[in-house]
Specification:
By secondary structure, this protein is α/β, with parallel strands linked by helices. Helix content is 35%, strand content 19%. It binds D-gluconic acid (GCO) and magnesium ion. This is Mannonate dehydratase.
């Protein structure tokens, strides 16, 4: 029987910081897992290096469920983003190993293909309506069949989701994490936002018609009542979803939103366990579940969660920003292809430097992503190149209310 021989934690920064776990078995098979927690990367690296790696050596790499329970129950202190990202990285690396040993892509181990590919959405944004239209057109030219739209708000400066560097005719990407010793501060006013956003969607529907699925991210900034107002005012524009309209820690607050609007609701990118969703799922307060595999406890946890959600006709919309590494993105794609209740997959293309360090075989064609057919996850890690991109701290921005400077959700 092969055993786990080595657990390494690899930190690299090809454009942005990533933490990777590599498990090597006594037979020389390696598996990769994503352990990146944006802005708090080294906490997960230390958790794995100091507390998990030493207790995994000698175990059977094939017993994924047992290892998951060993780390979850065995840690005594359960849940939380650092713990669950660490567990996810080990879990995903073990699925990668299992696939390589079996000679099968991971989605085959999860039940095989339920669809030809995973419908992906990209991120359009604009500082004004012409720039936004240009960004939407760029995405359509690239083949996207669903597009998330974020817009600047008159009277506010830089806001979440709007690319800073917008050049006509060029692709512009939104990247919030800034290098340095402290987070950047942004200013926010919910009233200005609530009055502006419906006008943006009205303009988009006039220009692009109604067949294009459009999404929007509220990034946890509204109270439940404000979220209900926004959901109602967006109803005429037929959104695919309204994401993170209010902070989700208090699941019951989504009752207010749900009872007031038929705009579909997505939530959960900062959740990390099935318990974060329990009321939302059983009371059918949401339509799409947003966790990433990387922060949600891995493939093992997310497969169970999606099977639970399927009982309530809730679909997936896994988180896929560039701060989930290509390994995390590949893991999501294998699950997307396998589960029946897939909804949509977020897809922000990684930078060229990132894709040189993490060599992937997933493809994007005609609006659909496919994980590829290589055994395991289908991602290779280039150690030599990774070392050329040393880690340096980077932080997500913080938000303050424009009126009085009080801290607000970013
Ligand atoms: C999304 C998210 C991201 C997060 C980021 C934080 O919908 O993709 O909201 O943009 O802000 O993942 O690290
Ligand atoms: Mg989001």
């Amino acid at each position: 029987m092969a055993t786990i021989k080595r657990v390494e934690v690899l930190v690299t920064s090809p454009g942005r910081n990533f933490v990777t776990v590599r498990i090597t078995t006594s037979d020389g098979v390696t598996g990769l897992g994503d352990a990146t927690l944006n802005g708090r990367e080294l906490a997960v690296a230390a958790y794995i290096r100091e507390h998990i790696a030493p207790i995994l050596t000698g175990r059977d790499p094939q017993n994924i469920e047992d290892t998951w329970q060993y780390l979850y129950r065995g840690g005594y202190w359960r849940r939380g983003p650092v713990t669950m990202t660490a567990i996810a990285a080990i879990d995903v690396a073990l699925w990668d190993i299992k696939g390589k040993v079996a000679g099968l892509p991971v989605y085959q181990l999860l039940g095989g293909e339920s669809r030809r590919g995973a419908l992906a959405y990209g991120h359009a944004s604009g500082s004004d309506i012409p720039a936004l239209f240009q960004s939407v057109r760029n995405h359509l030219d690239e083949g996207f069949k669903a597009i998330r739209v974020q817009s600047a708000v008159p009277g506010l400066g830089q806001v979440y989701g709007v690319a800073a560097d917008q050049k006509p005719g060029k692709r512009y990407d939104y990247e919030p994490a800034g290098r340095g010793s402290a987070p950047k501060e942004e200013a926010w006013d919910t009233r200005k936002y609530l009055h502006h956003i419906p006008t943006v969607f009205a303009a988009l529907r006039d220009e692009f018609g109604y067949s294009l699925p459009l999404l929007h991210d509220g990034h946890h900034r509204m109270t439940p009542n404000q979220a209900a107002i926004l959901g109602k005012s967006l109803e005429p524009y037929d959104l695919f979803w309204l994401e993170d309209c209010t902070p989700g820690e208090n699941q019951e607050s989504l009752r207010r939103v749900r009872s007031q609007t038929t705009t579909p609701i997505a939530i959960g990118e900062i959740f990390n366990s099935a318990f974060d969703y329990q009321t939302l799922i059983t009371e059918q307060l949401i339509d799409y579940l947003r966790s990433s595999i990387t922060h949600g406890g891995g493939i093992t946890a997310m497969k169970k969660l999606m099977d639970f959600a399927a009982l309530y006709q809730i679909k997936s919309g896994f988180h896929g920003p560039t701060d989930v590494s290509p390994i995390g993105q590949a893991a999501a794609l294998h699950l997307d292809i396998a589960i029946h209740n897939f909804g949509i997959q977020e897809y922000m293309r990684h930078s060229d430097d990132t894709l040189k360090v993490f060599r992937t075989c997933y493809t994007f064609e005609d609006g659909l992503l496919h994980p590829g057919v290589r055994p395991g996850l289908g991602v290779d890690y280039d150690d030599e190149l990774a070392e050329a991109f040393p880690y340096s701290p980077a932080y997500l921005p913080v938000n303050r209310l424009q009126t009085d400077g009080a801290m607000h959700d970013w």
